Amino acid sequence: MLSCTRSLSYLKKMIPKVVFVLGSPGAGKGTQCQNIVKHFGYKHLSAGDLLREEMSKPNSEFGEMIDSYIKNGKIVPVDITCSLLERCMTQSGNEYFLIDGFPRNQDNLDGWNRRCNDKVKLQFILFFDCSLEICTDRCLSRGAAGSGRSDDNMESLKKRFNTYQNESKPIIEHYEQMDMVRRVDGNRSPDEVFADVKKIFEKSMAEPQA
Predict the structure, then answer these.
(1) 78, CA 20 to 30 Å: which among 22, 85, 86, 147?
(2) What does each C-alpha distance from 97 to 17, 86, 90, 125 come to in angstroms?
(3) pTM for this prediction
(4) Span 60-91, pLDDT tens digits
(5) DSSP class of 166
(6) Which domains does the chain have, with CATH numbers?
């Protein structure tokens, strides 16, 4: 009986714990995810980075399609994104994950619920609330500094912000109704923002795990 109990406890422990990290382009998601990884040991999975990595592979069957979606500020089909996320979570050996920039629309949310929801524990949604003006300046500065991203330009940004307002904001509102959103003011310096982020994660870690 004791051995069985330990086995069940181990299986429960190994269920991936996930935090969705959401916010407009340039809101500071990537910077803060780096801080969270350093201080709390989470594995950072950026949906956008995974797609760009897949796009760059010479023999990827999805590469050209992903490139077209990203350049036009559109959202890549959910089954591609979910398959990349699942693969990384399975291969990483970690238990705690930050999924950055996902889900970005209703189709993403439906796909996640269909493919992954019963396989992970969603802890909460970390939402960086940042003004359009500051986000635009950050993205353009990043592009001018040689970010290597094909969408860090004004033409793509307009499309990306439009997609965010029309498709991503409703997802945040959906989770707010479930009291799962932890909102952070992203207009401030990275250190000021992380001070609030740190409090959120420390509080979560102190709570009993269901």
Answers:
(1) 147
(2) 6, 11, 11, 12
(3) 0.82
(4) 878 888 888 888 878 888 988 998 899 899 89
(5) I
(6) 16-205 (3.40.50.300)
Q: Which helix (H) or strand (E) holds 23?
A: strand 17-23
Report CA torsion sign: 179, 162, 115, 86.
negative
Q: Distance (Å, rounded) from C-alpha 129 to C-alpha 108? A: 20
- pLDDT higher than 80, residue 6: no
Any idea which residue has 């989470």 for tokens? 42
Residue 1, pLDDT score: 41
Distance CA 44, CA 25 (A): 17
Query: If you average pLDDT over residues 24-40, what whole number do you get?
Result: 95
- The H or E element spanning position 129 is strand 121-129
- Residues with Cβ within 8 Å of 128's Cβ and at least 6 positions away in sequence, in order, are 21, 22, 23, 24, 27, 28, 29, 32, 184, 186, 193
Phi, psi at 151, each rounded to 5°:
-110, 10
Asked if residue 170 lies in contact with residue 106, where contact means CB atoms within 8 angstroms, the answer is: yes
What phi, psi does 170 have (nearest 5°)? -60, -30
Are the C-beta atoms of 21 and 33 separated by less than 8 Å?
A: yes
How many C-beta atoms lie closer than 10 Å to residue 102's C-beta? 27
Task: Say how many C-beta atoms besides its own lie within 10 A of residue 59's C-beta.
Answer: 5
Helix ranges, 18-163 (H)? 29-40, 47-56, 63-71, 78-92, 106-115, 132-144, 154-163
Residue 42 phi/psi, 5-degree rounding, is -70, 155
- Please report which helix (H) or strand (E) contains residue 145, including its range: none
